[in-house]
Amino acid sequence: MERPRVSFTLDKNILSELDEIAKELGAKKSHIVEQALEMYFDAIDTMIADKRLDEIAEGKMKVLSLAEFKKELGL
After folding, report:
1. CA 62, CA 56: separation in Å to the nearest integer?
2. Rounded-to-integer distance, Cα 17 and Cα 43, Å
3. Is residue 39, in this structure, part of any structural domain at all?
4. pLDDT in tens, 10-67
5. Which residues contact 72 (CB under 8 A, 6 or more apart)?
6. CB 22 within 8 Å of CB 29
7. How far apart are CA 18 and CA 70, in angstroms?
8. How far is the CA of 57 from the CAs of 2, 40, 46, 52, 62, in angstroms?
9. Are 22 and 32 in contact (CB under 8 A)?
């Protein structure tokens, strides 16, 4: 897997906590950040799914049956 180098800024308190966690776990900061982002993205996926369910319940979004979906795609 390609691992491009990235650069970003952090609040000094977050960076300090990251340093402490990395030292405690004996892990690279990049590994901890990567794991944290993966967990965050999982949480965001759940939030997006909940939002979409709310939109469906409120009638703001329409759910298509498989037949309707195929028809829309011309299949």
Report:
1. 6
2. 21
3. yes
4. 999 999 999 999 999 999 999 999 999 999 999 999 999 999 999 999 999 989 999 9
5. 64
6. yes
7. 49
8. 41, 26, 16, 9, 9
9. yes
Domain presence at residue 25: yes
Structure token pair of residue 44: 């965001």
Work out the burial of residue 32: count CB atoms within 10 Å of its CB; fewer than 13 is exposed, 13-18 middle, 19 or more buried. Answer: middle
The domain tally of the chain equals: 1
Record the tokens describing residue 17, joined without a space: 């906590």
Which domain, by its residues, includes 63?
12-73
CA distances from 38 to 25, 30, 33, 65, 71 (A): 18, 12, 9, 32, 36
